[in-house]
Specification:
twelve-stranded antiparallel barrel; about 350 residues; elongated; about 20% helix; alpha+beta; Porin
Amino acid sequence: MKATQNSILLILLFNFFSVSAQYTETINSNRPGFSQGAFSVGKKILQLETGFGYGTEDHRLKNTETNVFLIDYNIRYGVWKEELEVSLTGGFRSENISDKNGTNGDYKVSNFTSNTLGAKYLFFDPYRKKELEKPNLYSWKANNSFHWRDLVPAISIYAGANFDAKDNPLTHIQNNISVIETGIEISPTVAIATQNNWGSWVFVVNIIGDRVTLDEASYSYILTLTHTFNAKMSAFLENQGISSDFYADQIFRGGVAYLFNQDFQIDASILMNFKDTPSRFMGRLGISYRFDMHEKDEYIEDKGKAGREKKKEEKGANKKDEKKKKNKRKDSIDFEDDGDDGSL
């Protein structure tokens, strides 16, 4: 019995497993990695994900040493459908820079690195089809062996608008006409997120185009592999590749997450790279908390002909219930009338 309960908890944990609806009994957080999974938080779920980091960056060519403190945040909310969520994602960074050349001495810069308002929509989910399939009652191997279709991931698309302030030394945004007039440069970010659920393993891929209409555009990928050890603990490894005219890097991250309860998670991770322009090392701590206002599961496999037939059946059942209630009320009134007539 205990093994069965643990299996159920693993299925629910972090929305890492096959489910028939977006909503899960436990929090579905994108932390501690930087990628976002294909699935949303669920309709009427408000989720807060935030953390801080501290580390160092040493630039060999500039001959500078930098102490970095950063705060990142992600506010997510499920709206309209189970497959859709809107979010506000951003970060604030403070740098204490020591110039070993003696030109500038020690100085400090700080500002927001990003503020992006966006939306993510799951448009393909192969797992809902698997939920509808009946298991093979005669073969354990048929139910548990590898199938090529297991390589097909869930896929979502993301689109957002970046809001960058002028004179920001951390974003390199040029003084374009729109920035000069409004003080803010607005540019789009687009991304594709895929997610494979393989038992206790989950593999997420993000392909991202950031500020794509600006000279400061950057393009990146993120590969995240997560493993759950039990109903409380999980760990991840992540690789991010970044390319732009201002910065290019290969970043590696790793860390763990611990689930305190179904709505509260803490995490810890480290970041490092293998270049010296600059070399980077950072530790991060974070929390995720959700406000669960979910009322009713909307099963995302109920689409097309099957969904219409089910809705038709539900509508017919509701009409029958209303008719029974109406007849019951009528019988009650008739009985009271008969009693009144008899008493006169």
